[in-house]
Amino acid sequence: MKTALALSLLISASAGAACGPARVALPAGPGTVRADYAPIFEAAIAGCRGVRTLTADLGLSGRSGRQKVRGHVLSGFAPGALRLEGVAPFGGPVFILVAESGRGTLLLTRDHRVLGPAPPADILRALVGVSLPPDDLLAVLTGCVSAAPAPVGARAFGPDWLAVDLAGGGVAYLNRRNAEWLLVAGRSNGLEIQYGNRLGGLPQSVRIRSADSGNTPAVDLDVHLQSFEINPALGREAFSVVIPPGTSPITLDELRSSGPLGQ
């Protein structure tokens, strides 16, 4: 029998998420090689480059596979580590996902099931269709597109667009507004990311879509940073979870079959 998976409860949670940024048509084609991209790029990511740890209250809405997603997640990040708690309208968390050093554990609190250790990117893909390790997820949410982004080249599209190629295959798209270059979108890890207005150096909203429309499951999620704290002190205990007595195991295959990929 399929478990009554945490994602189903997350989908039905009443906490709404604000609308994410409208999708912008990104420039395409070869463009014109531009040599002075490095200082422009570093200035554009100055706000997210310095984020080492983060706590954030995330509102989610959108679609993953055939499922609509709308809910509320409390998150914490440190280098190589994360904690995500799916919040229901009442009672304790629906799920708790913790990860550190490439090992993730997922506790489905209401189903009394536990998964782990497993790669955190695989757990996230089974839950919401987005396969990202902790550092890359933090980079996506804070506006850096990918962890430790290193520019290796750039192409200009007219006076106001710059596509910066990143080591590892990602691309960051910068748009000039009022003489300031802003990182407004990116492509990395099979995803297209677009950013809304920024507050305190971080985007207030992030839209995450499958870059390839043939990708399964197709993902189109809006993530709204309702509140956040940059570089708080987080102890390692924040990235662990106590498994209650009587909790039974669930496999990654079972989680996949119950999540958007299985649906």
Please provide a written account of the structure.
The chain is α+β, with helices and mostly antiparallel strands. The protein is 17% helix and 41% strand. It contains six helices and 17 strands. It has a 15-stranded mixed β-sheet. A hairpin with a 7-residue loop joins β4 (81-87) and β5. The two termini are 14 Å apart.
Briefly note the structural class of the backbone.
Answer: alpha+beta
**Biggest sheet: strands side by side, in what order?**
1-8-9-10-11-12-15-16-2-3-4-5-6-7-17
Q: What is the number of helices?
A: 6
Major β-sheet profile: 15 strands, mixed
- Beta content comes to 35-45%
Overall body shape = elongated
Give the uncertain stretches in residue-range form.
1-18
| Global Rg | 19 Å
First and last CA, distance: 14 Å
Q: Please give the number of β-strands.
A: 17
Order of helices and strands: HEHHEEEEEEHHEEEEEEEEEEH
Mean pLDDT: 86
The portion of residues assigned to helices is 10-25%
